Amino acid sequence: MAALDVVDRYVNALVETGGEARRLGQGEWGVTVRSEATGEWPLDLGIRLVDGMLRAQAHALRASDALNPWNLLHWNRQTRLVRFACTRDGDIWVHGDLPAPAVDEPSLDRLLGLIAEAALAARELERRSAALGAAPEADTRPAGAWPAI
């Protein structure tokens, strides 16, 4: 089955089961994980199929002095399929890509799940860092190691 059809079926199944998902245009979709499941605010994931690649991304965090975005580079060394990025303004995004021929329902579900897990882990790290009053230049790594993503 073509990647376009796989994503369409996946998004439609989410809607049928009460999830928040929508088709934004040809080869573009949006999925929202509600705030009840994510904490403070919903997590919006964008999905786009272009040039033979399926790309998914989510805005994880607004720029914050409580979190040193350089620490996320360490997490990038441990992740599979997904990675963190930081805008010039300091906002944190999570991205992931799959080659279109490799897209099936399990791989799509895994990709979106890993993006959501990474975004929520970054939000949790930011919450813990803010609670500790960590300065941006301080080591904000929790005692014991980084969560596996």
Tell me what you see in this structure.
With 149 residues, this protein is α+β, with helices and mostly antiparallel strands. The chain has a single domain, classed as 2-Layer Sandwich (Yope Regulator, Chain: A). The chain has four helices and six strands, in the order H-E-E-H-E-E-H-E-E-H. The protein starts with a helix and ends in a 17-residue tail after the last helix. 24% of the residues are buried.
Question: How would you sum up this structure in a few lines?
Answer:
This protein has helices at 3-16, 35-38, 71-76, 105-132; strands at residues 20-25, 28-33, 43-50, 53-61, 82-86, 92-99.
Distance between the termini: 29 Å
Total strands: 6
Radius of gyration: 16 Å
Beta-strand proportion: 25-35%
- In terms of per-residue confidence, which ranges show pLDDT below 50 for 5 or more consecutive residues? 135-146
Helix content: 25-40%
Trace the largest sheet across and list its strands: 1-2-3-4-6-5
Number of domains: 1
Number of helices: 4
CATH top level label: Alpha Beta
Average pLDDT for all residues: 85
| Shape type | globular
What is the CATH topology descriptor?
Yope Regulator, Chain: A
